[in-house]
């Protein structure tokens, strides 16, 4: 009888240890869920910006990368930094991907890889309401505000005789225009259009045609397999209609 009791007690202890072990493995698996560290500059509405009264971020890019991360089985962790710090952060492995309304350019493709384009933008000119500027040709010799490290800055520097003021954020460039420190702002069209519905509607207007169609892409470190994974997830979002729902939410119906 004692042997039977001892055997039963040993069996119970073994089962208990097995269950405890299984629970521990489950917890370990949960704790080690894949994390996708996503770098962005959260001052680029409507693509990425802080929610009102919160430290959390929102915008088209934010909701898109969260949907892509979910599709790929990742928990998305947003990391805020300056736009010009994103590529160095990728190459130093401080982040896994960067999404920040980043235009795919030949220069950038030399140092990072991009996904397929997820949005086609362009450049737009914003001036004060009392301005006589009608096109980029009228900006010769004038002062242009823009965001540093962007295609808006590149375009500004092609204007003959123009004085270019490059700021850390698009909002700072717009404020310079409002305060009379610049004759115009050149920046991404959807960002300027969104700004015009908010702070810019009382003092500014847009002029000229949208310039230079620009494909936005998600950047990853050179050689990273994440580019392929993201492309696959993006294709699935488009096929399911989820991408179109996000687009309509932030930009309205496609024209």
Structure description:
By secondary structure, the protein is an alpha/beta fold. The chain folds into two domains: 119 residues, Periplasmic binding protein-like II (D-Maltodextrin-Binding Protein, domain 2, 3-Layer(aba) Sandwich), CATH 3.40.190; 94 residues, D-Maltodextrin-Binding Protein, domain 2 (3-Layer(aba) Sandwich). Helices cover 40% and strands 24% of the residues. A five-stranded mixed β-sheet has the order 4-1-5-12-6. Strand 2 and strand 3 form a beta hairpin. The N terminus is likely disordered. InterPro entries: Iontro_rcpt_C, SBP_3_CS, Solute-binding_3/MltF_N. This is Putative glutamine ABC transporter periplasmic protein.
Alpha plus pi helix count: 9
Structural class: alpha/beta
From the N-terminal CA to the C-terminal CA, the straight-line distance is 84 Å
Helix share, percent: 40-55%
Total tally of structural domains = 2
**Order of strands, widest sheet:** 4-1-5-12-6
Instruction: Give the helices and strands as they follow along the chain.
Output: HEEEHEHEHEEEHEHEHEEHH
Measured by DSSP, the beta-strand proportion falls in 15-25%
CATH class of the largest domain: Alpha Beta
Rough shape? globular
Low-confidence sequence ranges: 1-32
Subcellular location: Cell envelope
Protein name: Putative glutamine ABC transporter periplasmic protein
GO molecular function: ligand-gated monoatomic ion channel activity
Organism: Phascolarctobacterium succinatutens YIT 12067
């Amino acid at each position: 009888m004692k042997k039977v009791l001892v055997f039963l007690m040993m069996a119970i202890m073994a089962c208990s240890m097995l269950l405890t072990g299984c629970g521990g493995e489950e917890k370990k698996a949960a704790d080690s869920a894949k994390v996708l560290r996503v770098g962005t500059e959260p001052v680029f509405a409507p693509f990425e910006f802080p929610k009102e009264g919160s430290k959390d971020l929102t915008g088209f890019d934010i909701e898109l990368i969260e949907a892509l991360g979910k599709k790929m089985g990742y928990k998305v962790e947003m990391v805020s930094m300056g736009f010009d710090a994103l590529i160095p952060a990728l190459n130093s492995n401080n982040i896994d991907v960067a999404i920040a309304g980043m235009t795919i350019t030949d220069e950038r493709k030399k140092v990072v890889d991009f996904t397929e384009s997820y949005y086609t933008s362009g450049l737009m000119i914003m001036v004060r309401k009392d301005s006589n500027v009608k096109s980029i040709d009228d900006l010769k010799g004038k002062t242009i505000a823009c965001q540093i490290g962007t295609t808006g800055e590149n375009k500004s520097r092609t204007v003959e005789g123009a004085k270019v003021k490059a700021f850390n954020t698009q909002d700072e460039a717009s404020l310079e225009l409002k305060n009379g420190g610049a004759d115009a702002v050149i920046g991404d069209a959807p960002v300027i259009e969104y700004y015009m519905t908010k702070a810019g509607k009382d003092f500014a207007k847009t002029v000229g045609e949208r310039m230079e169609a620009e494909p936005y892409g998600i950047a990853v470190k050179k050689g990273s397999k994440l580019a392929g994974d993201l492309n696959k997830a993006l294709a699935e979002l488009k096929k399911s209609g989820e991408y179109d729902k996000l687009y309509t939410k932030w930009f309205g119906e496609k024209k």
